[in-house]
Amino acid sequence: xxxxxxxxxxxxxxxxxxxxxxxxxxxxxxxxxxxxxxxxxxxxxxxxxxxxxxxxxxxxxxxxxxxxxxxxxxxxxxxxxxxxxxxxxxxxxxxxxxxxxxxxxxxxxxxxxxxxxxxxxxxxxxxxxxxxxxxxxxxxxxxxxxxxxxxxxxxxxxxxxxxxxxxxxxxxxxxxxxxxxxxxxxxxxxxxxxxxxxxxxxxxxxxxxxxxxxxxxxxxxxxxxxxxxxxxxxxxxxxxxxxxxxxxxxxxxxxxxxxxxxxxxxxxxxxxxxxxxxxxxxxxxxxxxxxxxxxxxxxxxxxxxxxxxxxxxxxxxxxxxxxxxxxxxxxxxxxxxxxxxxxxxxxxx
Length: 349
Fold this sequence. Notes:
By secondary structure, the protein is an alpha/beta fold. The chain contains ten helices and 13 strands. The longest helix is centred in the first third of the chain and has 21 residues, at 95-115.
């Protein structure tokens, strides 16, 4: 990961969130302990995610952005900026808020980073693909994409702007697919199905999944591209420290069913599988995606060769080392082998 020769500090926005805190954790594993981390902690408990992590300075977003606007050199030489801070709620209806928070702020930060000769890596989203279910490639005509919600559109707006401004070949956009893992407890209804199903199973002994309304696809056989958060940040750091440019899918490249996901949760909890299929709300039926699967050819061609954590391995680690004991990333229980990674944990015990 030495494709760039820049010197200076690292900045991570959204640093207390699911992906942001995992990225700071990954930076720590690579010996980086002087990052500047930025977020909006508010009244949530996501501050707990920062406690075991090592960094040099924390700033609230409302302090950080005015400081760099007033003095672009406020933090000295900057080597890399990982912009993961955004409103990620696909149900958010305030378009004005999403434009300001997800689009304008990203424009301002990208302009500042490039002006400082810093590497700029930002969170785009697989939501930009809209209802498309096949051939999810990064080189698709961006104007052919139609996001299904305002969140996805706010991300697409920046992708389009970066292309128009001619800077997409100097920065990296990460199209995250279905990311799950520790440190998502603050996300409420936007948590992964792993977290929500874990709660359902421990409270009721069953998991509710939507019925299928597409001929040939049975209930629970709808698929998603699930990716463990530790893989997601390993990819982000690889791309940030390589000569990569443009948009990259961040997924496993393998579509798995909701039934597969839930079965892995029951296995991790050593409970018998018990799934209840429920009707899908009418408002959702017309725009529900029955399949997502990232193409990862560009990622592999960009030199990322590490294997992806299997769904069974990732779910087992997330549940047994984090959710059950109630721990955050960096405070986890040791793995059975002591290796500390999902890949060292057997898919079944």
